[in-house]
Structures are given as C-alpha cells and as structure tokens.
Amino acid sequence: MTIHTQPHSHVFTDSYLPVAGSAAGIPSGNRILRRHEHLIHAGARIRHPYLVISGAFKSYVNYENGDSQVLGFHVPGSVLGYEVLLDGYCSCSVVALDTSSVKRLDSLDEDTRRLLTENMCNEIQRLSRQLHLERKCCTDARLAAFLIDYSDSQGRRGYSRNEFILPMGRRDLAGYLGLAPETLSRGFRRLRDRGILTASTNHVKLLSPERLRNIAGVASDRARQRC
Amino acid sequence: MTIHTQPHSHVFTDSYLPVAGSAAGIPSGNRILRRHEHLIHAGARIRHPYLVISGAFKSYVNYENGDSQVLGFHVPGSVLGYEVLLDGYCSCSVVALDTSSVKRLDSLDEDTRRLLTENMCNEIQRLSRQLHLERKCCTDARLAAFLIDYSDSQGRRGYSRNEFILPMGRRDLAGYLGLAPETLSRGFRRLRDRGILTASTNHVKLLSPERLRNIAGVASDRARQRC
DNA sequence: CGCCCCCTTGAGCCGTGTCAACTAATGTGG
DNA sequence: CCACATTAGTTGACACGGCTCAAGGGGGCG
Fold first, then answer.
1. Residue B144, Cβ density class (10 Å: 0-12 exposed, 13-18 middle, ≥19 buried)
2. In what helix (H) or strand (E) does residue B209 lie, and over which residues does it extend?
3. A61, A62, A163, B95: which is deepest, by most CB within 10 A?
4. 10 Å Cβ neighbour count for A25?
5. Nearest-neighbour CA in chain B from A154: distance (Å)
6. CA–CA distance from B3 to each of A47, A173, B121, B129 (Å)?
7. Using one digit for the tens of pLDDT, what is the confidence trace for A41-95?
8. Other C-beta atoms within 10 Å of B117: how many?
9. What does A111-174 look like in DSSP terms, one character per residue?
C-alpha cells in the first residue's frame, strides 16, 4: 500500500478552522504574550490546553549539554498542550516569537479531547515526515518544503500565498530544519539566484511557486545530491 | 528549564507491564502472524487496537517513489493502532519480523483509551529524540543508543541485558536509524574492534555495556565528528 | 554614534552515501 | 544431498554535501 502524501502539508498544526477575521483584533479575555515570553515551561504542569489566536510561537527542548532543539512553530489555529490528556507535565517549552495571544480552553469536553488527540496524531505524522525529509532531502528541498508549507498555511488562513513575513529568525528556522544557520543562508541564496524568490531576511516573496513546489516535491527522490 | 533525558529510553513502546511469563507460550485466542505477514496495511481501517504478545513487528511507510521508511519496532508489551481513537485509518503498515502473536483489545474503555493516548505521547517524544539523535550524533552514537535501548527493553521484560538476538535485519535497522546499510555495518565493525561487543549478524553480546552507554551518552555533545 | 546581534559569505575538512566487488547465508529445484 | 540462484551482509574507494571556523556587512536600540 502506498501513501500519497503531498510534499509536506500540516507542518503548521492549524487543526482548528481558520480564524482569519478574529486574528486581526485581539479578543479580550485572552492571554497576551510578548516577544520572548513563555506560554509553557518544560517540566511544569499545565491544567488547560491553549488555542493560538494571533502571533506565532516556537516550541523547543533544552538538553543537558546546552544545545536546544526547535520542535515546531505554531500559528493561529494551532492547539497547544495535549499533555493535559495525561498528567499535564510538559516535555517542551513554548515561547512567543512576537506579540501573540492565546485562548485558554477551560472545559476538557469531548470535542476538546478529540481536538487534542487529532493534534497528537498530526504531530506524529509531521515528525515522521520531517525525519524522512532530513534523511533523504538536501538543503534546498527542505527549505522549499517548508516555504511551500508555510505558504499554504498562510493561504488557508486567508492571507497571501506568495508574499509573507516569517515570524522566526534564521537561527530558529535552521534549528527546525536541522541545518546550520550558514547552510540555511546559502539555501536562501541559491533559491534567490535562481529567481524563485526574494528574501530580505524575514520578508519573503515567492516569484515562482511552481518551481519551488517542484524542488520540494522532487524531495523524496534520492535528491540529496541532485537538487 | 532543562529536560534531563536518559540517552534514549522508550524507543520500544512497552507501555504495558512486562508479560515475560506469558510470552513463552502463545495464549490461545490470540492472532498468530508469521514472518512477513502484515498486521496492519497502510490506508486500511482498523476497528481495534492490538497488544503485542510475542515476537516482533516493524512499522513502516512506503512513499510514491518506491523507497520506504522504517518508523519503529514493536516488541511484546507494545500497543498498536492508536488510530482507532480517531477515524481508524492507519497511516503506516505493520508487519511481523518473525512468528508473532497479538491480542486484540476489543473494548475501547477508559483504560484502553488512556493507554493509547500514552502511546501517542511516547511516540512523539521518541520521534523528537530520534530527530535530535540524527542531527547531532554520529553513526556509532546512534547505534550505541539503539543497542542500549534494546538492551534495557530486554531487561525490563526479564531477559538478559547483555546478550540477545535482534529480530530485525541490517537493512531494517539501518533504515530505522537513518543510515545506509554499509554505514551501519561499519558501525558494528568499529564497536567490535574496540572490544565493546560481539555481533554475528543478529546475535549480539555486549562485552562492555558501560563504554557502550558512554558512547551513546556523549551523544548530544557535538560528537558528530568525535566519537 | 557605537555597540551588539543577526545574517551572510568564504575556505577547508570530515562523515556518510554511493558504487562496486566479494563473501556468507538462505532457499530452491532437480 | 548437492548445485545453483538469490538475497543479505561486509569491505574498499571515492565523491560530495553540510558543518565548523573565521571574517565581513547591516540593521536595531541604547
């Protein structure tokens, strides 16, 4: 049996329906977090899950030796805190990349539980895909897959698919993609040289989404050497 | 906040308590599968989860271009089929590596749901760790981490920690660790040359678990080049 | 203005994938 | 039971991608 996966969907876990309208204004009663402020501390216990309303978050783990690993990015629509289905102890930290707001999901009713379960399931599939991506695909394909994915995520939320601002810095993005920052920088440069996009640090404009999608799609070939 | 993870525990998802005694004889009423026989086909729908009683399984995904990815190995005590918590459609296939038996969990009661949820949670953490391992650690550290983990798993189930038979072939193990079979072979050779183990294909004997654990533990350093 | 941090660019090295050849193990049919 | 075919595992040679180290811009903020 063959699974036909699109190159790299669902990296952004917006399992909830798009909330494009309400994302502009920040609803009262929600918790507001500023850049670098933590929503969740690894090892701490949470009692309620959160729904991301606006902004963007990064989840990560720190290891004993000091280096940290970026686990994922979370945009409006994402649900955080599936650990409440178990003991509530979080294994990773979640920090705001920019001024952001979240809605606390107070009642752990049937719908919420299902939402969290779907969230976990998506997470497993995302990690599997990421593993496969890092094993088989070169820098450019990984970067292309990420950009296509982010582009789609933007589109689903009602924003432009071809022009957007990345909420995370190069270091974090490199960490997420399993690359050194220098390598990521060179990846951007190659895509820019080929006229596929323009990227002034965080402002990205896709000039040829077709070719970008192609680069990401050839991904699963043995395209580690031939991009 | 720093998470203190042991080098690589829980790769083998024996969330259920060890069933060492009952593993010897195969209880009646359970489903028996022979080598290469599938328990779950990707894309198919399952209605009940399974508990592995004896033998060993491999879960994997096939991609369009033909190459497949090994997702995990499952020994007695593992639970398979968390997808029943959602729509029941499986995203990966599960095949027996040897003559094996499973027990179908008929009632989806509270305990079973919790077991499956824990299973998913462990899976997420395992995949995160694997990602980190593959990004930061060289061949020998990855192999060492796997062997330590398998050794511990054997120990928990009441078998020898220092001498065991790996149920999977080199190709599958290489695929799981994200290595080429040749590279894995060289990894075994280096560990053998250093007097840390003996390995005649599947029969592994750990001569110096201490040093092996050390190699796996130095893992998270920037030990990609210096093992 | 000047400091700091982030990003970029260059040079060189090392680990691992690939290709190819050889051996060992397994299975098959006569 | 042996000869053969087939697959799995090992070993060697080589090339290449990405990491590391080091230095050079560029933008934000005090």
1. buried
2. helix B209-217
3. A61
4. 10
5. 25
6. 20, 22, 16, 12
7. 999 999 999 999 999 999 999 988 778 999 999 999 999 999 999 999 999 999 9
8. 19
9. HHHHHHHHHHHHHHHHHHHHHHHHHH--HHHHHHHHHHHHHHHHHHTTS-SSEEE-SS-HHHHH
- Per-residue pLDDT, averaged over A121-143, amounts to 96
Distance from CA of B63 to the nearest CA of A (A): 6
Indicate if the alpha-carbon torsion angle B127, B131, B132, B138 is positive or negative: positive
Amino acid identity at B85:
L
Sheet with B93-96, edge to edge strand ranges: B38-40, B93-96, B57-62, B68-74
The SS3 assignment for A81 reads coil
The answer to whether the Cα torsion of A36, A41, A45, A48 is positive or negative is: positive
Is the pLDDT at B9 greater than 60, yes or no? no
Of B160, B122, B199, B157, nearest to B52 by C-alpha is: B157
- Asked if A65 and A55 count as a contact pair (C-beta separation under 8 A), the reply is no
Binary contact (A63, B2; C-beta < 8 A)? yes
C-alpha to C-alpha distance for B202 and B170, rounded to whole angstroms: 8
Q: Please name the member of A5, A67, A91 whose beta carbon is closest to the beta carbon of B3.
A: A91
Nearest CA in chain B to A175: B135
**Residues B157-207: tens digit of each pLDDT:** 999 999 999 999 999 999 999 999 999 999 999 999 999 999 998 999 999
